[in-house]
Structures are given as C-alpha cells and as structure tokens.
Amino acid sequence: MIPRLITSSVEISLDRQAAVALIGPRQVGKTTLALHIGRSRNALYLDLEDRDDRERLSNPVLYFENAADRLIILDEIHRMPSLFETLRGVIDRGRREQKGTGRFLVLGSASLDLLRQSGESLAGRITYVNLGPLSVLEVEDTRAARERLWLRGGFPDSYLADDDQISLALRRDFIRTYLERDVSMFGPRIPATTLERLWTMLAHRQGSILKASDLAKALEISAQSITRYIDLLSDLLLVRRLLPYHANIGKRLVKAPKVYVRDSGLVHALLGIPTLEQLAGHPVVGMSWEGFVIETLIALLPWRSSAFFYRTSAGAEIDLVIEHGDGTLWAIEIKRSLAAKVEHGFHLACADLKPARAFVVYAGTEHYPISATLQAISVRGMMEALQSIQ
Questions:
Q1: Is the confidence at residue 19, as pLDDT, over 80?
Q2: In whole numbers, what is the pLDDT of the chain averaged over residues?
Q3: pLDDT tens by residue, 339-383
Q4: Residue 147: which domain range?
Q5: Whether 174 and 102 share a structural domain
Q6: Residue 180 DSSP label
Q7: Where are the beta strands (DSSP E) in 109-257?
Q8: Domain final residue, candidates 130, 151, 181
Q9: Of 252, 270, 251, nearest in space to 261 by CA
Q10: Which pLDDT score is estimated for 166?
Q11: Residues 36-92: tens digit of each pLDDT
C-alpha cells in the first residue's frame, strides 16, 4: 500500500466523531485505506455491493449492537441509503452508553449523493474526509515518478501498472464502468455515448471557460442538458468547475467557470494518449499539466482556503488564486516548461489583486526568486508551502 497523506486525518476524525465518511471516486484507494486503518481497530468490513453482506444487514440495528465495540466499515454506502436513518439511532444510543466515537467508517463514490443522504440523518454525527488520486507527495521524489504520475494519473492501479499500455487499458475500463453502470446509478438516464462524447470534448478543452451553448451545439442537445451532465460528472468527482475570482476593482471580469477533467490520466485516456512522447507533441499538453498541478494543489488546501482563477476581458489572468481564511491571496502561474517565465497578463492581474505572495509553478526542481515579488517553485515545493500553513 502506498502511504496516503490523509490517513492521520481519518484516524483523528474517528477518535473524535461517531461516523466518518471517506469520499472519493471509484478505484481511488478508499477500500485499501479503510482496511489499513481497520486492522488496528478490530474492524468489521461490509461491502454493500456484495449480496451476502447486504443480507447480513437484514436487521441492521441488531447487527450493529452485536458489534458495538468494533469499528464497522460500510463500503459503497449508496447501495443501502436507508442505513443512514438506522445509523443515526445507533449512534445516539451509543452516545448515551458512552460509546460515542469511532463507530462507523462509510465509503462513498459520489459526493452529492452521499452528502445529501447522510446530511439529512447524521448532522452533527459525521465528519467528511476527501480522498483524491495519488499526489506528488505520495510518490517517489524523482522526475520519472512525477512524469509517470502526470501521464497515468493518480488512480493507484493505473499509476502502478507494469507499463503504459496496461495503464491506459485500465483507465479505459474505468471510463467504461462509469458510463455503463455508475452514471445510471447516481444520475438521470443519460445515453452513455452522449456522455462519453461530452467527457471527451471536455478533455480536448481542458481548462477552458465553460461555454455550454457551444458544447450543446456540437452534441445537438440543449444547453440545460449540458449543464446537468456536467453537474453529474462533478458530483461523481470526475470533473471540477474552477470558479472565477470576483473583486470590486472596476474591471470587466470573466464570469463563467473553467472546467477540468480532474485526473490527468483520464484526460489522456479519453484522448488516446498512451506515452509521454505522444503527450509532449499533443495540443493538450500545456493544459493537461495545468490541470494536473491545479488538482494537486487544491487537494492540499487548508480547510478555510478556497481556489479560483482570475481573468479580465483586457487579458489579465492568473491560473490559480488561493484565498486563505484570513483574506490574503496567493497568485499562482503554472508553466510546463523548465523556464519559469510569466506573461504580461499575469503581472497585470497581480497589479489588480495585490496578492501577498506570487509563484510560478514550473516543471523544474529549483526554488528561486524571479523578482522581489515573484518566486519560481516546483510542484512539490508548492505543495510543501501549502502544507506549512495548515
């Protein structure tokens, strides 16, 4: 098992809360992490996609009471949403009997569905922890490992595959599973071919401003349908909408979000890019790297910090604006090259927003000042800078 950065967060949450929800896309490593944590807590594991395990919960209250001294791991909790109401009663009864923490670790693959179901029943009784794909800090500190992570993405099986072709095949299977099974489970009936075409178009347009009308015209469906389909991909933790940063500075600001396919490996699988050599010559290479870095950094944001982009109609632009809990801003420009250079638009945007710190995250490894107000930094260095303020 590759050690995951959030392991301690899950452990701490279990020590102070009755239920913890570990949320992340399918095959991201939730079950592996949960079983690792469970080994030291005498845990019971139930996979609710398995019929036998579901039958064990035919009388869930009795089952849970018989295991009151053990952590119970409930995998794929969306298979039995009725359990949330039962968990509330069991948790409340346990609190009265001084058994109030570390009772349940529930795993789910869709953020909105899980939040809606649990939010109705478990308010004040559950903590949410997000598990994303592998990050730069979770793989070897070598350029080869970082490049492999960028190409293959952070799903563990894909990253650890014996070669690039096997990795690509695994990611294509992952895409097919979502299209043929998970989408119909979590969302309205959507033709799989239509959603695959939309997903592929988003990969081609990685990091572009969302123009639903253009996508709708290309797919011959309504703009409302495009918005609904992107909502679903976002709820399944497969697509990210990065919102624009709005400031009262008297400038005409872009108001639509940018859209990214969250895992770079899925971008490359959707576009049929199997190797680094082919990726280097593909038009998506720069935006693929940008999305990879943005997703990597957002996963490490302190809980009171938020991420945006900034763009004006006059050409001022910042790839990533981080607003910390105290209101200070960090401006981050992202470059795939080994030269940490920024465009004039970045300087214009910094003049608008006056960030406390400004960085160029580039493909090199050195950390050095470009000017009195701007620093060049590696992806790993930027992650460590974010970790230092948590």
A1: yes
A2: 91
A3: 888 999 999 999 999 999 999 999 999 999 999 999 999 999 999
A4: 136-387
A5: no
A6: I
A7: 126-130, 208-209, 239-242
A8: 130
A9: 270
A10: 98
A11: 999 999 999 999 999 999 999 999 999 998 988 899 999 988 888 888 888 888 888
Phi, psi of 363 (to 5 degrees): -85, 0
d(CA 261, CA 253): 24
Six token digits for residue 38: 């469970």
CA distance 209 to 44: 46
Residues 55 and 204 in one domain: no
In this prediction, residue 314 carries a pLDDT of 85
* Residue 123 CB-half CA count within 13 A: 3
CB 103 within 8 A of CB 92: no
CATH code for the domain of 347: 1.10.10.10
First to last CA, the chain: 26
In a domain, 305, yes or no: yes
What is the pLDDT confidence band of residue 338, given thresholds at 50, 70 and 90? confident
Q: Pairing state of beta strands 72-75 and 258-261?
A: unpaired
- The DSSP bridge partners found for residue 24 are none
Provide the pLDDT for residue 95.
Answer: 78
For 65-210, strand residue ranges (E) read: 72-75, 104-108, 126-130, 208-209
Is the CB of residue 26 less than 8 Å from the CB of residue 75? Answer: no
- 215 and 314 co-located in one domain: yes
CA distance 389 to 383: 10
Helices (H), 243-365: 264-270, 276-280, 285-298, 344-353
Task: Say if CB 333 and CB 318 are below 8 A apart.
Answer: yes
Report yes or no: 192 and 180 within 8 Å, Cβ to Cβ: yes
Together in a domain, 244 and 287: yes
Query: How many residues are present in the chain?
Result: 390
